[in-house]
């Protein structure tokens, strides 16, 4: 059996091997892309393998030295395209990148929208349950509101996952 999904997990685990999330116990970075694929497959019933693979790879461009060319060679044109669609342009200032995510959410492909939706579901759950240690209440609330603004732009792509996003948003810190 030849599994491109397992190959993607191995690829992402290797790329993220020295990285940790920002939560207080510095969880292994790879937990996050695996969570996205788990949400898509087992909460959203998404069975499009290209989407699950793109979810696994979604932070390799932004957060590791991986290039588009590398993804293209390893996983093909479509997956490389989806990962590029969900990657910020790191040459831009952080605030501008955040605004561009809001502005572009409606214009990205269906597959990219699904990955983006799963990313925001997982990050809201993380900010609610295991936030970056130094984040104030205001910052956690701002993050929730920004994530919601991004998701408003892509509503209609997958109502069940949007409902799961809304449930995650309901835990907005008070
Ligand atoms: P972010 O605010 O973008 O940090 C959040 C990102 O970190 C998430 O989107 C997620 O991205 C990743 N992440 C890793 N671990 C966790 C975790 N445990 N919980 C949630 N997310 C996690 O980046 P910066 O810290 O660089 O902040 C930059 C922005 O924040 C600027 O726009 C700035 O203006 C603003 N800011 C606001 C402050 C405030 O007090 N309101 C203070 C300072 C900055 P991924 O899924 O891609 O890994
Ligand atoms: Zn992510």
Describe the structure.
It is built from 10 helices and no strands. It is an all-alpha fold and 174 residues long. It has one domain (4-169): Hypothetical protein af1432 (Orthogonal Bundle), CATH 1.10.3210.10. The site of NADPH dihydro-nicotinamide-adenine-dinucleotide phosphate has 19 residues, from α7, α8 and α9. Zinc ion binds at residues 32, 58-59, 119.
Tally of separate domains: 1
Kindly provide the name of the CATH class: Mainly Alpha
Rg measurement, Å:
15 Å
End-to-end C-alpha gap:
49 Å
CATH architecture: Orthogonal Bundle
Order of helix and strand elements from N to C terminus? HHHHHHHHHH
- The fraction of residues assigned to DSSP E strands is under 5%
Quaternary structure classification = single chain
| Largest sheet, strands/sense/barrel | none
Mean pLDDT equals: 98
CATH fold topology: Hypothetical protein af1432
Question: What would a concise description of this structure say?
Answer:
With 174 residues, the chain is mainly alpha-helical.
């Amino acid at each position: 059996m030849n599994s491109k999904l397992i190959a993607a997990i191995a690829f992402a685990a290797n790329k993220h091997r020295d990285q940790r999330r920002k939560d207080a116990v510095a969880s292994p970075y790879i937990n996050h892309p695996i969570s996205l694929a788990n949400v898509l497959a087992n909460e959203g019933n998404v069975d499009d393998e290209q989407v699950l693979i793109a979810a696994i790879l979604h932070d390799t461009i932004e957060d590791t030295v991986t290039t588009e060319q590398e993804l293209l060679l390893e996983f093909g044109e479509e997956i490389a395209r989806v990962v590029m669609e969900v990657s910020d342009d790191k040459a831009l200032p952080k605030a501008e990148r955040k605004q561009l995510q809001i502005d572009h959410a409606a214009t990205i492909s269906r597959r990219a929208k699904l990955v983006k939706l799963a990313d925001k579901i997982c990050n809201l759950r993380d900010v609610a349950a295991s936030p970056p240690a130094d984040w104030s209440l205001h910052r956690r609330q701002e993050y929730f509101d920004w994530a919601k603004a991004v998701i408003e732009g892509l509503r209609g792509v997958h109502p069940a996952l949007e409902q799961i996003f809304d449930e995650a948003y309901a835990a907005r810190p008070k």
